[in-house]
Amino acid sequence: MQDDKAPPFAMKDRSREHPIAASWRPRFREVISRFAAGDYALSSGITGVDPISPETAEHIRSNVLAYGATLTALPEAVWETSSAQWYDSFWDVLVDLWTIEEGQSDLVLQARVLETEAGVRFTIHMVYVP
């Protein structure tokens, strides 16, 4: 999905995917930076991101290892192909991941973003090849 201007906030449009809101991007960058450093449990936490269970962290780690490439920080180009879609009470988000060996890889991060009284909450569900 290409869009030269990122919306500052997420679109509530159930009919189609939209670019990931600019306000969410720093959190996704931090999550992937931690994963690239081998911290799949986000052990020291990230503000606004739910803790990752040991089981989910192990599943993410094993999927990345099975893929056989090394995750790297997200380049700006990632936002051209990543997306968020509204589903009545949450956004389903897919962030394309990059590796040192390939650049853009087949791996994606799947997350859910919820609105709460305290602000948006990110729940990381999985890293996988769709």
Write the layout of secondary structure elements.
Blueprint: H1 25-36, H2 54-67, E1 83-86, E2 91-99, E3 103-116, E4 119-128
Antiparallel strand pairs: 1-2, 2-3, 3-4
Strand order of the largest sheet: 1-2-3-4
Please report the number of helical segments.
Answer: 2
Low-confidence stretches: none
Q: In one word, what is the shape?
A: globular
Major sheet attributes: 4 strands, antiparallel
Percent of residues in helices: 10-25%
Q: Indicate the structural class.
A: alpha+beta
Q: Give the rounded overall mean pLDDT.
A: 93
Compact overview of the structure:
With 130 residues, the chain is of the alpha+beta class. The chain has helices at residues 25-36, 54-67; strands at residues 83-86, 91-99, 103-116, 119-128. Helix content is 20%, strand content 28%.
